[in-house]
Structure formats: structure tokens, C-alpha cells
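Researcher: Here's a chain I'd like modeled. Treat it as a single chain, no partners, no ligands.
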Amino acid sequence: MSSAIPTRRDPDLLGQTVVVVGGSAGIGLETARRARSEGAAVIITGRNRDRLDQATREVEADRTAVFDANDSAALESFFRNLPGPIDHVMVTAGAPRYRAPLEIPPDEARQDLTEHLLLAINVARCAAGKVTGSLIFMGGTGARRPRPGLAIASTVTAALPALIANLALELAPIRVNLIAAGFVDTPLSASLLGENLHKRRDELRATLPIQRVVTPTDVAALAVHIMSNTALTGATFDIDGGQQLVS
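Model: Modeled as a single isolated chain. C-alpha cells:
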């Protein structure tokens, strides 16, 4: 009986260049690490110089830039000065806004509603003519069901898939996709939950169909798959371990 001969595959992103906006921690850092392991040259950005320097050493990034992605002038300058062409851009910058809309000033409510959406539009505008492969943005699933205090987060959650689908048409043949994550065990989650982090982890391990918590590595694997699969565009990919099925 003959035994199977193992085959060696080429890395999925060999010879390509991947930019991760918000790549100094969490999902962004893991995506940069995964892209690097698949043969890509990696460029990462972040707001915190020290954290970005540490991430650069960890993933052996080819280039870095320190700026706030929501600063449209800085974002435009970053893309303008990039050596091109760029194959893929992953955007993980920004945080969800879990604030009761009736309890915050109108200007802050306006910012919470528009910041994440405008970031996607600004990245798309700046990337046009520079990126040849795909853009990937991060969204969420947790605010899909209406709940008190989540009006702003729910509105943005509902709007992002429509925006991404339209951007896929506007930028074609560049591919544009959205990853919608549930709870992911990241430093951001830890900062949002504080002392309730361990309790939330235990709840998810007990209730999720996968019987474990989703990690940045899980999301990074999906992101690299989306980069390498050239048939995917205009879509929203949920990754929540089945959280929506049981909550």
C-alpha cells in the first residue's frame, strides 16, 4: 500500500506587499505576522511609536509609519509616499463606540456615527491608483441586535456592509471586503471590559459552539485568505465562533 507523498505549497502572498493600518497590536499585528509568514513584504502603521517599534521587531516589518488613521491629511500623505504598487491593505484602526446616544453631545454623536465610515471612504480614496489587489476593513457583529445604549454602534454595524459592497463596485477591479468579528480576545477587548474580561471569556467558552474564544490569529487567517482568493469582493465575512447563534 503506497503512502501519500507530502506536497510543498508556495506561500499564498509570495512577492506581494501588504499594508496593515493599525498593525501594532491585536488583530492588525497578527495579520501582519500571518502575511509575513506567507511571503509578503509588510508595512505597518500605528499611533503609538513604542508599540509600533515592538511590532516592527516581532514581524520584521519592511516599513512603518506613525500617525492617526482618522487624520485624513496624514492618511493621504502616507499613501502618497508609499512605494508602489501595493497589493493589499488591511484596516484595523479604530474602536467601536458603545455610548448611549441620548447621553452624549450632538457633536460627539456625529463623530461616533461617521468616524468608522469616513475612515473606510478615505482609505478607499487614498488607495485608488496605488493598490492593485484588495482592501479589507474590520467591522463587528455584536451590535446587530438592537439593545439599549447601542444605537450608534448598531447603526455603524448595519451601514458598513452596504458601504463595502458599494466601494467594491467603485474601485473594481480592486477587491473590497469586510470582516465582521464578534468578541476577539485582544488588548482592545481587555481595555473595554476591564475586570469583566475573565468572566466574558468563561461565558463564551461555555456557550459558543466552538467551545473556545476567538483569537486574533483566527481573524488573521481569514484576512490572508481573503487577500489570496481573487474571487472574493463586496462581501462581509462573519467570524464569531457561532456567537450570533446562541446570543
